[in-house]
Amino acid sequence: MSIQVDQVTKRFGTFTVLNDVSLHVREGELVALLGPSGCGKTTLLRILAGLERPDQGRIFLQGTEVTDQRINERRVGFVFQHYALFRHMSVADNVAFGLTVLPRAQRPSVTRIQEKVRELLGLVQLQAMADRYPSQLSGGQRQRVALARALAVEPKLLLLDEPFGALDAKVRKELRRWLRRLHDELHITGILVTHDQEEALEVADRVVVMHQGRIEQVGTPDEVYEHPATPFVYQFLGDVNVFHGRVAQEQLAHGSVGAEAVLPSDVPDEHEVTFVRPHDLEVNRSRTNSSQLEANVRHVLAAGSRVRIELSTQESAQVIEVELTKERYRELNLREGEVVFVHPRHRRVFKLPRP
Amino acid sequence: MESINSTGSKELQWKDSLTTESPLVRRLLIAAAFLYLTFFLFVPLLAVFVEALKGGLAAYVGSFLNDDAIAAIQLTLLVAAVAVPLNALFGVAAAWAIAKFDFAGKQILITLIDMPLAVSPVISGLIYVLLFGAQGWLGPWLLENDIKIIFALPGIVLATIFVTVPFVARELIPLMQSQGREEEEAAITLGASGWQTFRRVTLPNIKWSLLYGVILCNARAMGEFGAVSVVSGHIRGLTNTMPLHVEILYNEYNAVSAFAVASLLTLLAIVTLAAKAIVERKIHSPAIVADPIAGVQAGSSR
Amino acid sequence: MRLMLKQPSVLPGFGLTLGFSVFYLSLIVLIPLSGLFFKTSTLSWEQFWGVITTPRAIASYQLTFGVSIVGAIINGLFGSIIAWVLVRYHFPGQSLVDALVDLPFALPTAVAGITLAAIYSPNGWIGQYLDPLGIKVAFTPLGVLVALTFIGLPFVVRTVQPVLQDLDREVEEAATTLGANRWQTFWAVIMPELWPALLTGIAMAFARAVGEYGSVIFIAGNMPLKSEITPLLIMTKLEQYDYAGATALGVVMLVASFVLALMINLLQWWSTARHRNQ
Description:
Chain A is of the alpha+beta class. Chain A has helices spanning 41-49, 91-100, 110-123, 139-152, 169-186, 197-203, 221-226, 231-236, 245-253, 326-332, and strands spanning 3-12, 15-25, 30-34, 56-61, 64-65, 76-79, 157-161, 189-194, 206-211, 214-219, 241-244, 270-276, 281-284, 293-301, 306-313, 319-325, 339-344, 348-353.
């Protein structure tokens, strides 16, 4: 089911949660709404589900306007952040619920419902848990029950509100892959809300980055990560070093490779900010180029697949984070307190209104 | 009192000793609590039954086997049979509106529900006398049409309803608020109608609290004295409820019969307390109640 | 800002349930209660003042409010001890005691009244030992105190108990590691947490005691100017068909109840605000 969100605005009291948001989702796509808490992503999801009503704007599902349609007419599956499983029903009864509340004429027979529940529990790999109660399941299992329950009514659209938010890191990773595979099998249009950039980048076909009730950027995971449209997207997706003002320009702006300035402007009320990812900084023991920045090694974090190094410059108290491969780190053989020279291989300059 | 802190391992006791009192202080506190409860709780409770059985079993049974006692019991049951279902219906409706929706004036509504608890029972009766009594607002009209409310069954029922309005609602509102709206919203997203959502999702979640609310409401409805006393007129065999019957017997120095009827009401109170204890246990461990064996298995395999 | 009477929701039944609730409450509670004030307005201010300030009425206020506050404070002290013992210690029969604490709440007041009167009368179970000491309980203001203390018992226990249960043991451990002894820990760490709940419980016990009727009249002796509580005075006036007098005294009691209910609400608000900050 394709989705069209047309200039939707939503306020709670005086607080504008969604400000003139428009979005198009193609049939069969899995889209992630990504942003910090309070950015409006959950509200947008609830509006799509019909759990909230927009103050302005319109929603189209499959080309038909549904803005005023009640939730039970929309045929959407909604997976709640805290699962919202019926605590007094067994897993099987939870999954069967949507089928058993159908009007008698449309309701499948009892055996057909049982069959369907078995199928769905097989799909979410919980056949053995059919008679358990939600309180007897782990978080990951509950989440899969919630998903099976939502899928039972064969929705054309699946909406997931922070589906893995309450789970620990390892389970989250497993479920993420599993959801991706499930989506590839079922080809159901899906929208997933998350504040975890890694999750969004890994699972979704396209990522919608939201901030303060607006959409900052829409694109494939690769697009938003490699070519962030705004400083916010740059900072929200991954670690970044930020260099402000003149110092940054003299020291780093005339660097070697990949200078790419957007919004070129000489207006004096704007100042330039340079963004460099930690792995885009080149570190040398000796100066090879006059634009390199001289810095001290303050701290080395060698655990993990990559080595993280904190540098500090003499001019300012700013800490620069650098990420090196293990090989490069061994080659340089850096110690804390030593002097090094850094320059960016790749960077991005934004012009911002002067604060 | 020897088994203070007998539960738990030695290590636990040592750790606890950092944040507890010396054994002497502990024993003194427990003794103080027991002494107080003895004078104000245990002795009165025991006394009801001892006084009731003072004249022997025959006298005890005889206290119930006369027309006045039977009429009082019947009236009490009738009043409760009207007041309790009405207040249960009201309690569920009010709790649904208050716990599942946000609206202006919610706090005022909650305060209004609690009002009968703040008002003296005598005033609870008085207000109906002022409305329906011979000198009251509607008194002349009622007299003309030969409708009796005060000193008759309707007055007793009204006063009882007033006094017991809060009980079911007060049990349900905090519980339903803490349970949130997500399960109901999930049911709606799955296509359930409003009534299906209530019957299949909400009701099973609140049934134990609802049951306790009803039991408590019933206990108060059957035991109400002050308010009913004002509107009843104490007409023997006609407008005497059990508590009023107790009063009359006591004032006639028929202590054995008074305590015999009182013991029945005391049993009702004890049942109510037992129901509370059971319901609290059910609410705190829903999984264990649902399926004890699976609960243990899940706990160990997690 | 737009005035929102109701936040939109997908759940049905709002109009029906709220409508029924408001209708029911208006019929049963609001209209009858406001009737009390309308009836009072048939009295002139002088008449009203005259009725509520007779020596007999004033004596009844003094007894009702004075004894209620003493009973509430006694319950504050012993209720805290009982709550403490129930939460912190283990002893045989603990859950039984825990359940029985609510008895005064569930027991019909008339039953409580005749039972207390029987126990504390000069030849009763406890009264017979107090009589030789010159302590007369039944049919004196002391009897009123016994009854009002009895019915107030659950309130302090039930408000203090949950707060004690939720109290973080780590804070006490921290106080101990910082060198505080048990007594210092109690006063400096535990008590500040308990105050709002304790005061709420005392206020609730007081409010309940002020309006109490059934358990008092059997043990009080009901002598005007000496052991007659205000609710009984209202009853007496009603029995003499002095509706205006009963109404005037009723208004005094009702206003007192409102003020107390407001106070309790504020205390509870303070208590939960305190709790949420942690």
